[in-house]
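Structure ticket #2291
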Amino acid sequence: MVQGFGIRTISAIGIIAVAAIAIALLTHDIQSVLVALIGGIAAVLAAAGTNEVASDPDPARTTNDIAEPELGPVLEAIVEPVMIVAEGRVTHANAPARALLGGHIVGQNVRLAIRHPAAAERLVGALEPGNSDPIDLVGLGTLDQRWQMRVAQTLATESGTGQRIVHLIDQTGNYAAERMRVDFVANASHELRTPLASILGYIETLRDEAGEDPGIRERFLKIMDDEARRMQRLVEDLISLSRIEAEKYRLPDRAVDLAGLIDEVRAEITKGEVVTELEDGVPTVVGDRVQLSQMLHNLIGNAIKYGHADKPVTVRLWRDAGNMVRLGVSDQGDGIPAEHIPRLTERFYRVDPGRSRAGGGTGLGLAIVKHIVERHRGRLDIASVVGTGTTVSISLPAYEPKG
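Resolution: structure written out below.
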């Protein structure tokens, strides 16, 4: 290795590694570290091709022969798309870059490899010193993907003006999360605004002559009370959802008797008929008793709300062969069309908005259930047959005492 590159090359690469570590400690920015490390090594290897190759015992070895076995593994170790560009052409591309843009991009003009108007100037034009502002790209890969492109210039060498490192960062997840946040705020605002507007409207009406009629006054006050309680349920669910999300990385560590909890919840529910089928000897689960109680209330409450009034809701509990405790809540209602099932756990998603609101639903019940199950490292499944009914199944790990 030392004979191939020379002492100066090895020393320079070592210095670059130390500098990259220093950047990581000072900035905590992994992207800056990657760019600094790749750019530095690329510049050193380019210099090695002009200054040290003469001492190589094999004169047939070229700069590319030296750079390829060293720069290649560095690029391939990076999980995000990275390319090296020299004189407007792609000289190196790691596997993620080839998977995104195609294997043919190596040797191709970089503006053909990344066909995006916003990227062209940064890829081949003059780079302003210190300008590392990312460029947002839409349309690479699939239409719903969002990418962020960063370009950095390596140091100039005796053989040219240096190379450019093109780093593509997948922002699709961040974009989706931001859209979910925006949609959540918009939906929450709408859900709160609707009953509030109704309450304010009835208050104004009662201030007029309508308030003098006892019958009208009583009817309006009943509507106002219903709307206020609807707002209260929504606020409580929002607080509950926020609390569950805040605790999702803190694993529960208590043993909870799910069979006993089902009996307690069943006794607390005053509407509808609930039938239980609880297998004997089902072990306790690892859980948060308060959250599991909330999960049961939401599941059974939903089943009663959307099932037929003259038919019972069935709650089953059993242990499967994989040491998981299984819970199933089934109704005998109208069922849910298949296209709606993947979205049922989204916040404020409703198959029938009018029916849900009329029944006092907030649109957050199954979203809360999903987050509770995720915190307990369980699994949630929903199966439904139109005209027959719906079954929500939960799998939770059985409790295993430590030591």
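Closing remark: The first strand starts at residue 82 and ends at 86.
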